[in-house]
Amino acid sequence: xxxxxxxxxxxxxxxxxxxxxxxxxxxxxxxxxxxxxxxxxxxxxxxxxxxxxxxxxxxxxxxxxxxxxxxxxxxxxxxxxxxxxxxxxxxxxxxxxxxxxxxxxxxxxxxxxxxxxxxxxxxxxxxxxxxxxxxxxxxxxxxxxxxxxxxxxxxxxxxxxxxxxxxxxxxxxxxxxxxxxxxxxxxxxxxxxxxxxxxxxxxxxxxxxxxxxxxxxxxxxxxxxxxxxxxxxx
Length: 234
Description:
globular, TIM Barrel, 8 helices
């Protein structure tokens, strides 16, 4: 008997039916046009992933608002209509092959060009590279940026969104005791440090409907620098 007998069986999550239980990891692709819109080769790359038979194909490197969320310069700008029209073509190709296209929503937080994070500090302990603590208003605005990005992803043909909440991106910066030293409702206990992530998911469901699936990536442990496996589970 198979250890996972339902692996190749369809499953319905929210309002979306997935053809099996194999969800593709988000991957980026560096073959962009100068404006960071996908080239034909880029679209073909994701199209071939859909041909492989997984339930989802997830496009990585999608920043919710490049002015504040982007790290470096190469990433998909969800706020740009011209780029999103090209992304619609990509999503359509994936859908035609039976997979659900997903878009990974990213915010680099303290590592973004804008250098805004949960708490003030220095990047890699470099005093010449400081980051600023987000105000309450900026936190609430950022939550809505995620919701608006998801709403646009849905409008342009993506059947699901994936929130990158691991690997040092903004939601993990809130989870982490190493980068979140706040004393308000966004810091302190595990519940408070998880409040930002929960609020992002709630805002997306409010904007896109309860039936719109939201996948969430989390690093289960930070090893020696922050939370461990028990708190990661919590």
